[in-house]
Amino acid sequence: MFSKSCEYAIKAMIFVAQKSDSDSKVGLKEIAEGTDTPVPFMAKIMQELSKKKLVHSSKGPNGGFYMNKKNLKTSIADIVLATDGDGIYSKCVLGLKNCNEKTPCPVHHEYKDIKKKFIAMLEKNTITDFNEKLMTKKFFLKNEEN
Amino acid sequence: MFSKSCEYAIKAMIFVAQKSDSDSKVGLKEIAEGTDTPVPFMAKIMQELSKKKLVHSSKGPNGGFYMNKKNLKTSIADIVLATDGDGIYSKCVLGLKNCNEKTPCPVHHEYKDIKKKFIAMLEKNTITDFNEKLMTKKFFLKNEEN
DNA sequence: TTATAAAAAGATATTTTTATCTTTTTTTTT
DNA sequence: AAAAAAAAAGATAAAAATATCTTTTTATAA
Questions:
Q1: A60 to chain B, minimum CA–CA distance in Å?
Q2: The whole model's pTM is what?
Q3: Which residue pairs, CB below 8 angstroms and at least 24 apart, start in A69-73?
Q4: Of A109, B14, B34, B75, which has the fewest CB atoms closer than 10 Å, so is most exposed?
Q5: What pLDDT, on the 0 to 100 scale, is given for residue A91?
Q6: Cα gap B17→B4, rounded to integer Å
Q7: What's the Cα-to-Cα distance from B139 to each of A56, B100, B130, rounded to whole Å?
Q8: Could you give the C-alpha distances from A39 to A125, B7, B11, B105, in angstroms and in order?
Q9: Considering only CB atoms, which chain B residues are within 8 Å of A132?
Q10: Where along chain A do its domains lie?
Q11: Distance in angstroms, CA of A116 to C1' of D13?
Q12: What ipTM does this complex have?
C-alpha cells in the first residue's frame, strides 16, 4: 500500500507526538529505537519530514525533534502525500494510463466510492487523535510481543 | 497500490481474453504491443501466469497464449494474489506489525469496512465482466491518446 | 571560547523491482 | 528428418527503494 519510508514516517510522527512537548525533545536514536526502524534510514526520513515542516528540530545538545500545535493536527494523508506523493489521489487502481471519468477503467466507478471513503479516513485521522487513542486503547509502534 | 508486474498482468489477462479463442492464440509480442509493456518483461509475467495456470500456452508455430472457460472466470483478486501475494488481505494499512483485532492500529476498525468493500470489488470483477464491458463502454489497455 | 551533542547533508552500499538479452525446449509444418 | 516458430528458462543489466556510513553545520553548556 504505502512505501516503507511512509510507514516509518507515520510511526515516527506518532512517536514524536507522544514523547515530546515544548521543553523536552526526542532524539533520533530514541525515535528509531521506539519504532523498530534502522537509525540511519530514520535519520533520512526525519530530515525530509523536518524539511517539509511536518516536525520541527533543533540541533546541538538537548536538541532533537518536536511538534508544535499545527504539527499535531497533521493527518495521515499529509504524511502519505509528503512521502509517497499523490498517487492515491490521482492514479487508476488498475494502473491504466487513460482511465478517467470519460474513459473509465472497468472498475473505475465502483472504486470511486471506496477511494472516497479511504481518503476521507486518511484525512480525518490526525496525530492528535492517535495520542488520545493511546490513552485508552493500546497499539504498538514496536515489533514487540503482545 | 499494486506492483508494475501486477498491473501488467491484469492488462495482459484482459488482452488475451479479448483476442484469443479456442483456435486462435495470442503471441507474446502482440500482448506486449497491445498493452504498452516491454516485451521481455511481459514474457516473464506470462511465464508466471502460465505456470500458475491463469492462462494456458502452447509452443511452436501458431502457438501462443489462450484461455479456457475457467481462466475467463479469473478475478482481479486472483491476479493480485498470484503476482503480489496476499498483502492486501493480511497486512495492516499503516504497516504496524502487531496490528490485529485485539491490539488494533489507530485506524484498524475504521479501515476494516473499506478493506472489505475493496476486496469484494477485486473478487467480484472477473475477466469475463471486462470483456462484456468492452462491448459497450470503452477503456484502454494501451497508453494511446483518447 | 572551546568542547560536545545533536541534526543536516552528502556519499556509498545493498536489495528489490523492473527490464533486457541469450539459450534451450517444444511443436508444427514442410 | 529438417527448418522454423514460438514459449520456457536462465543469465545479465539497469533503476529504484532501502539501508548505511562519513562529514559538516549548528547550538548549547561548561
A1: 32
A2: 0.91
A3: A71/A17, A71/A127, A72/A17, A72/A126, A72/A127, A72/A128, A72/A131, A73/A126, A73/A127, A73/A128
A4: A109
A5: 94
A6: 20
A7: 46, 38, 10
A8: 27, 34, 40, 23
A9: none
A10: 4-135
A11: 41
A12: 0.89
Rounded, the Å distance between the CA of B62 and C1' of C24 is: 19
The answer to whether residues B109 and A142 touch, using CB atoms and an 8 Å cutoff, is: no
Instruction: Measure the CA angle with vertex B144, ends B143 and B145; round to 5°.
Output: 125
Calculate the angstrom distance between C1' of C22 and CA of B29: 17
* Class of residue A140 by CB neighbours under 10 A (exposed 0-12, middle 13-18, buried 19+): middle
Asked whether the beta carbons of A80 and A89 are under 8 A apart, the reply is no
pLDDT digits (tens, 9 = 90+) for B66-93: 999 999 999 999 999 999 999 999 999 9
> Is A97 part of the contact surface with chain B (CB cutoff 8 Å)?
yes
Which cell numbers hold the place of B43?
514474457
| A32: CB partners within 8 A, 6+ apart | A38, A39, A42, A43
Tell me, yes or no, if B93 comes closer than 8 A to chain A by beta carbon.
yes
For residues A30-59, average pLDDT: 94
Q: Helix, strand or coil for residue A66?
A: strand
Fold for the domain defined by A4-135: Arc Repressor Mutant, subunit A (1.10.10)
Closest CB to A139: pick one of B36, B103, B143.
B103
Q: Specify the nucleotide whose C1' lies closest to residue B57 (CA).
A: D7
Contacts of range A105-109, beta carbons closer than 8 Å, 24 or more positions apart: A105/B139, A106/B14, A106/B125, A106/B129, A106/B130, A106/B133, A106/B139, A107/B76, A107/B121, A107/B125, A108/B139
Residue B38's pLDDT is: 92
